[in-house]
Specification:
Layout (H helix, E strand, L loop, with lengths): L11 H7 L4 H19 L5 E6 L6 H17 L4 E5 L28 H19 L4 E3 L15 E4 L7 H7 L6 E4 L6 H12 L2 E5 L2 E5 L5 E5 L2 E2 L5 E2 L4 H12 L9 E4 L12 H14 L1 H6 E7 L25 H14 L1
Helix pairs in contact: 3-4, 3-10, 5-6, 8-10
C-alpha cells in the first residue's frame, strides 16, 4: 500500500490539555470575537485590518512583530480593529517548499507534526497572553480546526481550497468570521457559492463522526486577484470589482451579513508586495465614494513583517519572510496610522 503510517499524533483534546488557554485568554477572545462580529453585522463601523507575516515560521520573531503591532493597534483602535495574521499552514502550488510550522516547526528539518501542532498552539497562546490580540489563520486542513477552535478570531479559506466541499462544510460549523477567497481562476461565482454553502446547515463526516452544523452567518467573500490561462495576474480590488460583488450579494438575498475583505497582496498586487499600501488606499477611497460599498467592504488583508521582502530558508535574516515577500515594519506602522486618518 502507498501510505506509510508513521505514528498517531495527539488528539485535539490532548493538545488542549497540554496547552490550555489562560483565564485571561478566554476573556480576551470572548471580547475580541464580539467586537469583530459587530463589524460583520453592521453594528460597528470599524474597519478590519488582517495583517502580519505571510507565514509564521519563527515564534520569537512573530511575537516581536506582534509586540510592535499591538502598540499601533491601540493608537488606531477608534477606527481600526487589527487582527494579526498567524498563518501556521501554507499552501504550495506544486506541493514543494515550506508548508508551515505545523508541518515543520524547524523549517530546516524534516516534518514533525506532533511537535508542529504544539508549536502552532503555543505560538497562538503566547500571542494572546503577551499582546491581547487574537489572531487569524488559514484553514488549509479542515481536520486541524479543532486544535485551535478555542483560540482564533478569524479564519480564511484560500484560493486553492475554496471549491473543496470539506472546507465549505467545516466552515458551516464555526462561530467566527470565515472569509472565502475567490479561486485562482478569479470566478466570483465560485466564491459566492462557497459563502452560500458555508452559511447553510449540513450533515457530514468529520474526524470519524457524523456531525450536524447550523451554518455560519459570518461567512463572507475575500477578493485576492486572479491568474488567467497565460499566467498573468489580474487584479480585482477596483471599484467596478467591488460593485460586482455587491450586485452578486443583492442577487442572493438569503445570504446574511453581506461582507467583502480585500487581500492587497497575491494576484491583486501582481506579487509586488510594495504595492499593498497603494491598493489599501484605493479600496478605502472606493468605499468612501459609495455608501453601499462602505457597508459591504469590511476590511483588508496585508502581508507584513519586521523586515521587507523575503529570503530563502536557511538565510537566517531575523523577521524576514521565508515565503511570500512582505512590507516591513516602518511601512506597516505608517500605513496603519494613515488608514486611521483617512477612514
Amino acid at each position: 500500500m502507498s501510505f506509510e503510517f508513521v505514528r498517531q499524533v495527539m488528539s485535539p483534546e490532548e493538545l488542549k490539555q497540554r496547552l490550555p488557554l489562560s483565564d485571561y485568554a478566554v476573556r480576551i477572545k470572548k471580547e475580541r470575537d464580539e467586537e469583530i462580529r459587530k463589524v460583520f453585522t453592521g453594528e460597528s463601523d470599524k474597519f478590519l485590518v488582517i495583517i502580519g507575516p505571510c507565514s509564521a515560521d519563527n515564534e520569537d520573531a512573530v511575537l516581536d512583530y506582534l509586540s510592535r503591532l499591538t502598540k499601533v493597534a491601540d493608537e488606531v483602535k477608534e477606527k481600526l480593529i487589527v487582527i494579526p495574521r498567524i498563518y501556521t499552514n501554507k499552501p504550495r502550488t506544486t506541493g514543494e517548499g515550506y508548508k508551515g510550522i505545523v508541518s515543520q516547526p524547524d523549517p530546516e528539518k524534516k516534518p514533525d507534526f506532533q511537535e508542529g501542532l504544539m508549536a502552532m498552539r503555543r505560538m497562538h497562546l503566547r500571542a494572546i497572553d503577551e499582546t491581547g490580540l487574537t489572531a487569524a489563520d488559514e484553514m488549509l486542513y479542515p481536520e486541524n480546526w479543532l486544535y485551535i477552535d478555542d483560540i482564533l478570531s478569524y479564519v480564511a479559506v484560500g484560493a486553492r481550497s475554496v471549491e473543496d466541499q470539506q472546507h465549505r462544510l467545516t466552515i458551516s460549523g464555526m462561530d467566527i468570521p470565515a472569509g472565502m477567497k475567490n479561486p485562482t481562476s478569479g470566478a466570483f461565482s465560485v466564491m459566492m457559492n462557497s459563502v452560500v454553502a458555508a452559511q447553510a446547515s449540513h450533515t457530514f463526516l468529520y474526524r470519524q463522526y457524523e456531525v450536524n452544523t447550523t451554518g455560519n452567518p459570518l461567512a463572507h467573500t475575500i477578493l485576492r486577484g486572479a491568474t488567467n490561462k497565460h499566467n498573468q495576474n489580474i487584479a480585482n480590488y477596483h471599484y467596478e470589482d467591488l460593485m460586482h460583488v455587491l450586485e452578486m450579494y443583492q442577487e442572493r438575498p438569503q445570504l446574511k451579513n453581506p461582507a467583502c475583505i480585500v487581500d492587497a497582496n497575491h494576484s491583486n498586487s501582481n506579487k509586488q508586495y510594495a504595492e499593498q499600501p497603494r491598493i489599501v488606499k484605493e479600496v478605502i477611497h472606493s468605499r468612501r465614494m459609495n455608501k453601499d460599498l462602505h457597508s459591504l467592504v469590511k476590511g483588508v488583508m496585508v502581508e507584513s513583517y519586521i523586515e521587507p521582502g523575503s529570503q530563502k530558508v536557511g538565510e537566517h535574516i531575523y523577521g524576514k519572510s521565508i515565503t511570500d515577500p512582505c512590507i516591513g515594519w516602518n511601512t506597516t506602522r505608517e500605513l496603519l496610522l494613515e488608514m486611521a486618518d483617512i477612514l
